[in-house]
Please model this.
Amino acid sequence: MVVEKGKVISIEYTLKDAEGEVMDTTEGVGPMDYIHGMQALIPGLEKEMEGKKTGDAFSVVVEPADAYGDYSDELVLDVPRSNFPADVDIQVGMQFEAESGHAVTILEIKDDTIKIDANHPLAGEKLFFDIKIVDIREPTKEELSSLSCGGGCSGHCGDCGSDCYDDYDDGCCGGSCNC
Model:
């Protein structure tokens, strides 16, 4: 079996920055499972995984455009202090979830405004991965039902009340379920 859309892939990985500093790893916690082709990985890494098979070990360099995008100065903003919870002691470096669901980082605190950075923390970074494919298998219905439907069902595949997740390429998980 090879890595392709819809397969459950189990990987061990280490992510390093350009200086070789380990940023994330599965070492000591066990492999990470994901369903390939469902946007669980950054695009550049997912593309490099295609066609690999169990036991393959390789290194991948992912450019910012294929990861979290380029850093944008337009995403550094001054927002009113009133947009933040009054009962929280806000500190520089803290991260909050914006209404959009994206994380923002506190850069500077003034009396009436707070400067935030809405860029992903890894925006503009070249990422260096060491990957080992531990297993490849078919997903279970339970795994498919936990996927986000991309707006097609306003929730999760299991919320459809039908078997649309049986054909995840075209059904609920593909965003086209008619629930």
Observations:
- Residues 149 and 155 are 6 Å apart (CA to CA).
